[in-house]
Design goal:
This protein has 11 helices and 7 strands. With about 325 residues, it is α/β, with parallel strands linked by helices. The structure holds uridine-5'-diphosphate and magnesium ion.
Length: about 325
């Protein structure tokens, strides 16, 4: 087993030396071979200088540096792209997660494809952090059908091939288990330690909740309809068209029987429903076109094989 540890860092100069030391001692004592990818997410403090220093004296450290602050999800994505291990573990750079948990999580990969940490005794403020996150976890579990207690925990281990095939956007890193579940992966949740932040400040406020909810809508939409957009929009379009046509037929009959229909609000509704219906069907058809262009230009199959060796050979 070769473990790649991915650490996103945004202005974590004070935590970093402690983190590096405890990562090393945790991994050296478990005996697995490993590399540490420190991703500097456009920090303005000494973070980049520190990770370059570590790398100069330790070949296991691989520093990556963003030109500006692209966000935690982008940092994870860069780590996944550059990781060489067959197991990839992610951990926050602020010492809130305990590196000693990594071997435990990584050892379960094989039996599982994703092992997610669960901060059962989470050490964050209740009102501003734990409460929104409790609601978010319930909501995400319910909407995506993948039941986890702690989606927001950064401490996770993945089988590399699973996570390398997922494209990440926005605040999407927390949805990796949900997205991966479409491909049919086995997911486990393991209790992990959690500490209060010792140095620096959290990079997030309450505003993140809104982004998470918007991303959840995107994820749900993609999950349900990304391969069949016409089936998403079509039924509503047809329904709207049919209702519009029925109203128009009724009004035609009224007109033929000699009454005036020019002043009937129903006339407007009928026309509106027909136009909206045609729009919806048109959107579905456009979506179908996009799906085809995407799959054909990317040479992406519409299925995922369990055994990637077979995939490579064919
Ligand atoms: N982080 C990052 N880019 C950002 C924001 C955060 O790389 O734009 C890193 C940060 O340095 C830390 C981890 O992501 O290692 C989690 O951030 P933070 O501790 O602020 O989040 P919280 O624990 O409060 O949810
Ligand atoms: Mg933190």
């Amino acid at each position: 087993m070769f473990v790649s540890i991915v650490v996103p860092l945004y202005n974590e100069e004070e935590s970093l030396p402690h983190l590096y030391a405890s990562l090393k001692s945790a991994m050296d004592s478990c005996g697995a071979s490993y590399e540490i990818l420190f991703i500097d997410d456009g920090s303005s403090d000494n973070t980049l200088r520190l990770i370059n220093q570590f790398a100069a004296s330790d070949s296991k450290v691989r520093p990556l540096s963003f030109r500006r602050n692209f966000g935690q999800t982008a940092a994870f994505a860069a780590g996944f792209d550059h990781a060489k291990g067959d197991v990839i573990a992610t951990i926050d750079g602020d010492l809130q997660n305990d590196p000693a948990d990594i071997p435990k999580l990584a050892s379960l990969i094989g039996e599982y494809d994703i092992v997610s940490g669960w901060r059962k005794n989470r050490k964050d403020k209740f009102i501003s952090r734990r409460l929104p996150s409790m609601i978010a976890n319930r909501l995400i579990s319910w909407v995506t059908g993948v039941k986890l207690h702690d989606y927001g925990c950064s401490l996770k281990a993945y089988k590399a091939e699973v996570v390398k095939n997922i494209n990440l956007y926005g605040e999407m890193h927390r949805f990796i288990p949900a997205v991966a579940s479409w491909y049919g992966v086995k997911i486990a949740e393991v209790e992990t330690a959690h500490n209060p932040r010792r140095f620096g400040a959290s990079k997030y406020g309450i505003g993140r909740t809104m982004n998470v909810i918007l991303d959840l809508i995107t994820v749900k939409f993609l999950q349900s309809f990304s391969t069949k957009p016409l089936q998403a929009f079509g039924p509503w379009g047809l329904l709207s068209c049919l209702a519009g046509l029925a109203i128009s037929a009724y009004l035609t009959a009224v007109k033929l029987s000699g009454h005036n229909i020019g002043g009937r609000p129903l006339l407007l509704l009928g026309i509106l429903l027909i136009i909206v219906g045609i729009q919806l069907i048109g959107m579905g058809l456009l979506g179908e076109l996009l799906v085809r262009v995407y799959h054909e230009s990317q040479k992406k199959p519409i299925y995922v094989l369990r055994n990637s060796e077979i995939e490579k050979a064919s």
